[in-house]
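dumping this here before i forget
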Amino acid sequence: MLDPIVKTIEVPCDQQKAFTVFLDEMASWWPLDKFTTSMMKGAPAKSIKVDTREGGKIIEIGSDDSETLWGTITTYDPYGFFSMDFHIPGPPAFEVGKFSHVEVKFTKLAEQQTQVELTQTNLEVFEDMAEGVHGGYNFGWGLIFEQAYKEACSS
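structure:
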C-alpha cells in the first residue's frame, strides 16, 4: 500500500478566500500550459470549469474546446473542506474508470492566515503504474499546490 500524498501550506488570506481561490478561481492559478490533458496532446488548455457543489464536476476546456472530466466533487462543505474523485486521464490505464481521491481541508489559523492541507489517496488503483503515478503527482502538487495556488492566495 502506498503512503498518501500529503501537502500542507499556510496561505496569507482568510479561510473563505482560500477556499474560493482553490475552487471558484482554479482557472486563474492552475498552470494550464503545464499540467493539463491538453498539454499531454501538445497544446495548453483554455480554461477549467468547476461546478462547486456535491456531485459537481471539474472539467478542463481544451485548446479545441473539447471537455475533459478531471474530477467529481464528493463532499462539499464551503470554506472548510471538499473532496473529489480525481479522474485526470493520461496513459491508457487511467481511462478505464480508475481514479484517485483528493481531499482539501481549510483551517483558520488567524484572521488572514489559513492552513490548507491536500491529501491524495487510492493511487493503488493504478496497479503496476501506481508507484510512478504517485511520484508524478507528488512532484506535480509541489508545483501546482505549493507554488501556484499559494501565490494566487497571496495576491
